[in-house]
Write a structure and sequence with these properties.
Elements (H helix, E strand, L loop, with lengths): L2 E5 L6 H15 L2 E8 L12 H28 L4 E7 L2 H12 L3 E6 L4 H7 L2 H8 L4 E5 L13
Parallel strand pairs: 1-2, 1-4, 2-3, 4-5
Helix pairs in contact: 3-5
Family: Belongs to the universal stress protein A family.
Organism: Rariglobus hedericola
InterPro entries: Rossmann-like_a/b/a_fold (IPR014729), Universal_stress_UspA (IPR006015), UspA (IPR006016)
Length: 155
């Protein structure tokens, strides 16, 4: 059975990513493995941030993510596709690449948020990092944006 590693971040891209992963799993008689990477909080100041506060923040994020990923597992399972999930902490791209290697993933299916090049330069792009270093095929699912309605001019 082929393993389709499916990183999820619970953003607007998630449902499109799940749909693509389910479709690929059905076509290849595969299983979906959901992966969520809890990011460490960004520290921008030295004041008031203790190790206890940092630990508590990470724990709250992990608990919320555990509930959300369980919900996504149910959605995929309801479509008749074998599914499991994993959680990791830290840098998302590194976690994705590590899990793909551990699982011997046949594919990685992940979303692209469509940020600008300037944003990616400042913040980095998980998708870009995975594309550059993955040893298996990567399917990138774009975010479907709502179409703007054309305004009609009254005469």
């Amino acid at each position: 059975m082929k393993t389709i590693l499916t990183p999820v971040d619970f953003s607007a891209a998630t449902h499109g990513v799940l749909a693509a992963a389910v479709e690929l799993a059905r076509a290849t008689d595969g299983q979906v493995v959901l992966l969520h990477s809890v990011q460490y909080p960004v520290v921008t100041t030295d004041y008031g941030l203790t190790a206890d506060v940092m630990r508590e923040t990470i724990e709250i994020s992990q608990n919320a993510a555990t509930k959300q990923i369980a919900h996504l597992e149910k959605l995929v399972s309801a479509k008749g596709v074998p599914v499991s999930s994993r959680m990791a902490s830290g840098f998302a791209a590194g976690n994705i690449l590590d899990e793909a290697k551990k699982l011997r993933a046949a594919y990685i299916v992940l979303g692209s948020h469509g940020h600008t090049a300037f944003y990616d330069l400042l913040v980095g792009s998980t998708t870009n990092a995975v594309l550059k270093k993955a040893t298996c095929p990567v399917v990138v699912v774009p975010v479907v944006r709502a179409k703007k309605k054309k305004s009609v001019k009254k005469r």
